[in-house]
Amino acid sequence: MGASVDDVVALIDRDELIRLTLEICNIDSPVGHERAVVERLEDWFKREGFHVRRIGLFADRYNLLARLPGRAGARPSLMFNGHMDTFAPSHPDLVLLDPTRDELHKAWIEGDLLVGDGVVNDKGPIAAFMIAAKAIKNSGRQLKGELLLSAVIAETAYEPADGSPGEVTDAKELGARFLATHGGVADYVVVAEGTGFGIVWIECGKAWFKVTLHSRQPSFYTPYMPERTDPAKSPNMIVAASAAIEAIERWADTYERRTILHSPGGEVRPKVQIGAIRSGEPTRPIMSPQLCQLYLDVRILPGANPLDLRDEIHATLAATGIEHEVELYLFRPGYEAKGVEPLVAALSEAHRAVVGGDPPAAAGPTASMWRDSNVFAEIGIPAVNYGPRSASHAFRRALSTESLYQAACVYARTALAICS
């Protein structure tokens, strides 16, 4: 069998891990522009002696699948998965107060922290499983089952909304889904995403709704606007939208309170957000808009029907008296993975050996997102999310060097347990 588990883990070089993390996280890779980082990862895998395959729809941005072979016909196999793209709103000036701030595009060491959006989500964990796999390969230990390492694009992708078909050349189908339907398959999958070292095997689905508010009154030139009344009765749909938003927010509060799910795979708390609004003409604010469109992101439990939520939103708005339409324009189901017990056991044992104690319970956002683990769970592969998470994630993206090193050690131990 070659080297022992402890011998393999001893080959994980903390300094090399930090260097690789900083290198790939200083290659800016906002979604849609992953080419430079995918080329660097491909070079690394080839130099280290891994068989690597490009899997993608486009020639200039694609997924990578690297392999460390096991014995012919031996099982089970394990795949680590992470995404190379980083957050990049299509209109950052309308979303972020400071879209140029350094940590969105760069990475650096600050004390015991590795700072940068890419470090946290998700190139730091990718570096961790790359270095873990290198240690296994260099140890000379022969695996029984195959070990696969996948890096995908478009996890943070845009989605088509009101434009023409093909106008947005992004969607999550370009990433893990394209990988999985073109050979990126294993018996078990660890999605290396931030969970605070909890083990998560349930994730929300998401339903996006477009709410269009209509006015049958004329579009009034400012001097001819009628006297103000109840906002819901205003001929200006931006004003009426304030009443619609208030009603939706009340519904959202009730929905979020009633939809909590306590599961062994994580505590799921679906949330609702009005994330975009379109109305009026900034170059001519002299006319009252007869249309206003609100865009809602509603997270939903696995198995929930988005049409039920559409009907609830419609009933909520009907009570305001505002003429409206509610349209579902995106639906991605959530899933709870099945058959994860051997993987959870291996990860738990590895966590205890490296971090100490049992993995913490996964709660809140870590089990209430839509992550690529849903792709694998959908096609029947037992998949979990596990990785380090920044305590300041909501306002500053950073991981401690120790947590990233611990992740690499846990990943190595898990791979040896599953594949040996």
Written overview of the protein:
- This protein folds into 2 domains: 5-204 and 335-419, Aminopeptidase (3-Layer(aba) Sandwich); 205-332, Alpha-Beta Plaits.
- It has helices at residues 5-10, 14-25, 35-47, 117-139, 176-180, 237-258, 306-318, 341-354, 373-378, 401-419; strands at 51-55, 63-68, 78-83, 108-110, 113-115, 147-152, 188-191, 202-203, 205-214, 261-263, 266-268, 272-278, 291-300, 323-332, 335-336, 383-385, 398-400.
- The protein is 32% helix and 20% strand.
- The protein has 420 residues and is α+β, with helices and mostly antiparallel strands.
- The protein has a 6-stranded mixed sheet. Strands 12-13-9-14 form a 4-stranded antiparallel sheet, covered by helices on one side. Strands 4-5-17 form a 3-stranded antiparallel sheet.
- It is elongated, with a radius of gyration of 24 Å.
- Strand 1 (51-55) and strand 2 (63-68) form a beta hairpin.
Q: Decide which structural class fits the backbone.
A: alpha+beta
Choose one word for the global shape.
elongated
Strand content: 15-25%
Specify the number of helices.
Answer: 10
- Sheet with most strands: strand arrangement: 1-2-6-3-7-16
Radius of gyration: 24 Å
Terminal CA distance: 9 Å
The secondary-structure element order is HHHEEEEEHEHEEEHEEEEHEEHHEEH
CATH homologous superfamily of the largest domain? Zn peptidases
Question: Which oligomerization state do the chains in this entry correspond to?
Answer: single chain
